[in-house]
Amino acid sequence: MTQLQGIPESLLIPLAARSYETESPRGIIKDPLSQKIMASLDYDFNKFSGSWMTQVGISVRTWLIDQLVRRFIQQARRPLIINIGCGLDTRRQRLNLEDIPWVDLDVPEVILLRKQFFTETEVNRFIAKSMLDETWMDDVMTWAPYSEKSEILIIVEGVLMYFESSEVQQFFNFVSQKFNQHQLQMIVECCSQLMADHTHYHPTVSRLDSKPTFKFGYNRLPDFVKILPQTLLVTSEHSLFDYYSHRWKGLGVLRWIPYLKYRLNNKIVVIGQREREI
């Protein structure tokens, strides 16, 4: 297996969580492809097997983002999806979206690993660059399936917490400027600042050999809105505690306590373009 260090190693956590959840008769998601990939990798996944909270959290976020992606595709006339920090994500296959123009972007060592299990097609392009390398947007805009009428959805799942607040702000700024003609929508996952300050307590990230750390998070939505450019606005925010409460065991009650539910679990934030004044 390609040796992964630092942030790229974290892609193995959602792969394992989706695989373990698929084994459950009443699992939140079913993802046999993730099981197949996991079984072929030479890595000690046992270090993740005992973390039920991570498994539930990733399963809920996977399910929720799946629903949001489906909704986008139903509403968009010419959808084009960009998956930032794709890792070994299987959403395109799981949702049977092989005919939708789809870009998978990640750092070179991850794309090299991804190519062992997935093949590029005319409507599925791999881009081996950091999300902070602005040239990836030019790669998208010179790709054959792209057009000026494309309606773009950007998915940023399990990524932003590994970057500084200034880098996250930079990312939102240049993306909103480059794609401002495309009815841009974004689905992003964020952790809380409380969690970002305590990566060493995370039940699975703390077990990674490379010990990556969280940097960016927010406790209150207004703190997140502050880093967005004026052209973007938050259309909805979803705490993972709000879904499948029975799977959260005793923590399920936190969905009724806003102060805690937004600090002790991740959020999925949906972002859209602000209508321009004429």
Task: Sum up the structure in keywords.
single chain, 10 helices, 278 residues, alpha/beta, Rossmann fold, 7-stranded mixed β-sheet
Distance between the termini: 54 Å
In CATH terms, what is the fold-level topology?
Rossmann fold
Query: In percent, how much strand structure appears in the residues?
Result: 15-25%
| Element order: H for helix, E for strand | HHHEHEHEHEHEHHEHE
Number of domains: 1
**Helical proportion, percent range:** 25-40%
Number of helices: 10
Q: What is the CATH class designation?
A: Alpha Beta
Strand line-up of the largest beta sheet: 3-2-1-4-5-7-6
Please state the second-level CATH architecture.
3-Layer(aba) Sandwich
Task: Indicate the radius of gyration in whole angstroms.
Answer: 18 Å
CATH superfamily: Vaccinia Virus protein VP39
**Structural class of the secondary elements?**
alpha/beta
Report the count of strand segments: 7
Q: What is the arithmetic mean of pLDDT?
A: 92
The major sheet is characterized as: 7 strands, mixed
Question: Which residues sit in consecutive blocks of at least 5 with pLDDT less than 50?
Answer: none
What sort of overall outline do the alpha carbons produce when their principal axes are compared? globular
